[in-house]
């Protein structure tokens, strides 16, 4: 059964809806990196976004689309990362409660962010089953609406606004590369590119140590993530069902990068562009540099997904 995905008008409406909640992030270039890469790269800097990641878009859109009755009871999710902070912030701006289930081993910096935005943290054991059962209890008790991190239409619609801005601000792109974890950003990007310019090739970039999207893409069915091991901690989740449908339809390829390649690309962006990015954010550049012939002479948009890195634990 074919799912009905957001239309271009839906994505444009989402963009208008979330304007008060987000930054229109800049598109930066680096002649030094272009020279190394052998192509022209346009970096869409979501590391400068509210909460330091593209996740602010999807969370804001999902919260703004709730009914007044739903808003009164608040929102809930389980997340150890950027979605937790993004939802807590969107809820704070909307003046509603946010209940965030977080594993006990979630980074302190992420817990601090959620608390800073007024989210109520409910801790659980660090496994998916515990996260889901704890969330169920919270939703039963509070009546809050569950906002999933990526496999949710309103979230995908919000993430799609990132590529909308990129394509508006940088015409004539040949290729867009986005990282893939759960696939909300990639799915939204592929959908927007399809609507605005079907000639743009959309490629995903994934760590070798967490390559479930790569495996699923080539198998033609979802192969769940098992035992991921990579420095790109934002890309450890299994691919979402809705997003897999979008990827099958509109993404032309998924390229892999090793951890040493990811670290090298991360370092390159720090040194040449003087901006802070997290490891997951460096995966698209790492994949491009590992496959340079494929991109030679092209105009390539890269979505820099976020900048929430623990500066005490930089890998270089």
Automatic annotation (TrEMBL):
CDD domains: Thr-dehyd. Its cofactor is Ca(2+); Mn(2+); Mg(2+); pyridoxal 5'-phosphate. Keywords: Lyase, Magnesium, Pyridoxal phosphate. Residues 18-306 form the Tryptophan synthase beta chain-like PALP domain. GO terms for biological process: D-serine biosynthetic process. InterPro entries: Ser/Thr_deHydtase_PyrdxlP-BS, TrpB-like_PALP, TrpB-like_PALP_sf. GO terms for molecular function: ATP binding; D-serine ammonia-lyase activity; L-serine ammonia-lyase activity; magnesium ion binding; pyridoxal phosphate binding; serine racemase activity; threonine racemase activity. Belongs to the serine/threonine dehydratase family. This is Threonine dehydratase.
